[in-house]
Amino acid sequence: MSRYDGSNPVRAAPMTTLEILSVLFATAALFGLISARVLRLPLTIGTMLLTVLVSEGLAAAAGLLPGIHQWAFHLVGQIDFGSVILHGMLPLLLFAGAFLLDLEELAREKFAVSVLALAGTVLSVFLVAGLMELFGRFRVPWMECLIFGALISPTDPIAVLEMLRRTGVPRHIQAQLAGESLFNDGVGAVLFLTLLDAATGQAPTPLHIAGMLVLKAGGGVVLGIFAAWVASHLMRRLDSYQVDILFTIALALGGYVLADALHLSAPLEAVMAGIALRHFNHGVPRNRIAHDNVEGFWEVIDEIQNSVLFVLLGLETMAITLNSASLRAGLASIISVNAVRLGVVALLLLLVRLLQRGHRSSVFVLTWGGLRGGLSIALALSVPAALGRSWILGATFLTVVFSIVLQGGSMDWLLKHRKRRRVAS
């Protein structure tokens, strides 16, 4: 699938940050309107689908509308997708998702969440890599398959949380799926970076990998809890919702930046900061902390950023060249990721039920609802070209589109269909 190659480009000045933001927000608003009023699709899914279709349409009509296509390509070329997601939107999205969690249900499901986030991610990395090499008629090295397995195995909390809010999944299953998605990012990111180091000449031992995982993940957790404790005590000093909101923003961004600077797991720091702040503020009188205003602010931030993020993911279509190798890799990835997800979830839930009698869950919901999203694409963009960046990026993008549009879009209908069948039987 060819893309605009940049020949005879429009001689345009670089777009300012304000111009890029105005285009992104206007696109999100317009496509959100069309999605809700015409397509009758969930906001984020319809927005991403429309952005992908428009991007593909512009690529197909490059000869008929060269000016519009070159302008769109120029816009996409100004955006550093990996940096925008990893060091722009991700801290706020992770903090918001964790801060708005149901802590009581999460506490009840802590064992299942821990098993799925830790053992599930590690198992998935190696099993996905094995299947990709097995299916790999495109002949790629084992290390590249491992790197791909590490970036595609963590479920994306942003896509998962958006789906859970509209599908009416039972609260205990919501806690399992949302908790796993929020915590397995840190595990997957550490494994991904360790494998990149190994592929570029370093050869860490299994003990070294385990130590790095404990240090980076544990350090991120401790930093998030400590930063949240400090923020919570400062928020109690004054009855002002504006100041409370400013402290939460400072916590979400500052803690992530500090964890990154200390080479700790920044995603885990953001997640733990959100959960810990909610815990520390629980029970504090409402005349000391403006709970409703703070929660309302983060709900709005979460929804707006989700819409813009899915526009960005759709625009990424114009920056990715999908050749025959990446298309085959994408098909193999979709099959591998979902097959491994089903096997790992079924195995680990069986283990949880053996250790916790009466534990309730759903293999179907946790399998089909384990969506992949922007984090996987951001990690794929950081893979060096010499380590298979081309096919990894193409396969990741196709898997993410399948995951968000088809899996996320069909979950509501599938749940209702299963409920009707149970009632009928």
How would you concisely characterize the structure shown here?
The chain is built from 17 helices and no strands.
Q: What is the distance, rounded to the nearest whole angstrom, between the alpha carbons of the first and last residues?
A: 47 Å
- Write down how many β-strands occur, each being a DSSP E stretch of 2 or more residues: 0
Counting structural domains, the number is: 1
Largest sheet: none
**Helix/strand order:** HHHHHHHHHHHHHHHHH
Rounded to an integer, what's the Rg over CA atoms? Answer: 21 Å
Strand coverage percent: under 5%
Instruction: Using the alpha-carbon principal axes, give the shape.
Output: globular
CATH topology: Na+/H+ antiporter like fold
Helix content estimate: over 70%
Helical segment tally? 17
CATH class reads Mainly Alpha
Question: Architecture in CATH?
Answer: Up-down Bundle
Low-pLDDT runs: 1-10
Oligomer: single chain
The overall pLDDT average reads 85
Helical/strand content category: mainly alpha
Describe the structure.
Helix 6 packs antiparallel against helix 14 and helix 9 runs antiparallel to helix 12. The chain contains 17 helices and no strands. The model is unreliable at 1-10 (pLDDT under 50). It has one domain (81-424): Na+/H+ antiporter like fold (Up-down Bundle). It is mostly helical. The radius of gyration is 21 Å and the shape is globular.
